Amino acid sequence: MSDWKQPHSVWVVGHRGAPRRARENTLDSFDWAESLKADAVEFDLRQTRDGEAVVYHDEEIILGHQRVSVRHFTAREIERLTLPSDFGDYRIPSLADVFHRYARSLRYVIEVKISRDTQMTLMARRISHLAAEFGVTGRCLVASFSADFLRRMRETDPDIALDFLFDHPVALPEQGRATPLFPPADGIGPRVDLVTPALMSQAEAAGLGVHPWTVDVAEDMRRLIDLRVSSLTTNVPEVAVEVRSGDGHDEKGLALAARGDEGGEAGSD
């Protein structure tokens, strides 16, 4: 049974790891999130030319003055790349690298990025195969803005929990009414400002967990915890852990951490 399909306390999810501490979507960033007591890490997945799943947000990789699509590289070519960042040079990990390093020590929110030439069935099969190989099927929440991909994922592996992402108001399923445009899902991932008491009530009626992103302000964290969301995806997992525990009384310290005074940049989706 999937961890994500069972009742649980509010989990703290490191958005691309801990991107204020290390380059996002890297093993260093995930190491930081784990050390900061995050319950899960969220990361972006893209497909290489030979069908491998690699952890990278953007559709293109910048190489000097060139921008080259991830889909133009093979997995071996990606593995050989060393790229610069504000935190120093880094490498792009594969999904297998992540599962191998953390196995059952973390849970995973896997956001699948879809481009025009993504082979969705192949991607779904790769995720399913690797999750089963490493024994983490029940620890994975596969998320996407693509309803089509979520349908392919459910057809491929009904045991993996699914999360439908959106950044605008969406009509949720209602009991007894057909919802052909809404994909099969166990949860929803709304942008933080879209989470209201009304949305929470609708999600509860539909049997959907609520996993808002990206929640970096302590006040928003408290509001969402009070609304009983299922998880908080955040760039500052240490702040969310403190707020959840009730120890976050130092408002100045929380504000400084949430602003990311240690440096680095983090996107929102």
What is the global morphology? globular
Distance between the termini: 28 Å
Order of SSEs: EHEEEEHHEHEHEEHEHEHH
* Rg of Cα set: 18 Å
* Fraction in helix: 25-40%
Count of discrete alpha- or pi-helical segments spanning 4 or more residues: 9
Biggest pleated sheet? 9 strands, mixed
Q: Could you say which structural class the secondary elements and strand pairing correspond to?
A: alpha/beta
- The overall average pLDDT, rounded, is 93
Strand residue content: 15-25%
**Low-confidence runs:** 261-266
Number of DSSP strand runs: 11
Map the helices and strands.
Elements: E1 11-15, H1 27-35, E2 40-47, E3 53-55, E4 60-63, E5 66-69, H2 75-80, H3 95-102, E6 107-112, H4 120-133, E7 140-144, H5 147-156, E8 161-166, E9 187-190, H6 197-206, E10 209-210, H7 218-226, E11 231-234, H8 237-245, H9 251-259
Parallel strand pairs: 1-2, 1-11, 2-6, 6-7, 7-8, 8-9, 9-10
Antiparallel strand pairs: 2-3, 4-5
Helix pairs in contact: 4-5, 7-8
Report on this model:
This protein is of the alpha/beta class and about 270 residues long. Helices cover about 30% and strands about 20% of the residues. It has nine helices and eleven strands. The strands form two sheets. Strands 1, 2, 3, 6, 7, 8, 9, 10 and 11 form a nine-stranded mixed sheet that branches. It is globular, with a radius of gyration of 18 Å. The protein starts with 10 loop residues before the first strand and ends in a 10-residue tail after the last helix.
